[in-house]
Amino acid sequence: IEHFPLNLSCSAYSNPPANYSWYHNEKLLEAQNESQLLISHLSLNDAGKYTCNATNDVTGLFSHTSLEISVLGDFSSSGQIQFLVLESLCLLPDFWTHTTFFLSMKTPR
């Protein structure tokens, strides 16, 4: 929901520890190189596809996962019911997962 925080977390089992990079709609987020991505106040422009890449610089192996984020406008004054759908797609060698999350909430009047 617009103006709320968003915290995305990415983890990889790697020796040495993985290096992380984050993308928003295929564009590298330059200052984001940790396993967590925090957006303190969402705006409508923050909607889109977020991708985390985890890379082992020694072996050259990497993995990535993506999540589609929808940002709803702030309807808090209208008392409307809001729905949020999050979809996650994880691609790994010989295996993939796809998860859809539904969140609904009624804002107070």
TrEMBL record:
Residues 1-70 form the Ig-like domain. InterPro entries: Ig-like_dom, Ig-like_dom_sf, Ig-like_fold, Ig_sub2, IgSF_CEA-related. It comes from the Eukaryota. Keywords: Disulfide bond, Glycoprotein, Immunoglobulin domain, Signal. Pfam families: Ig_2 (PF13895). PROSITE patterns: IG_LIKE. This is Ig-like domain-containing protein. It comes from Podarcis muralis (Wall lizard). The lineage of its organism: Eukaryota, Metazoa, Chordata, Craniata, Vertebrata.
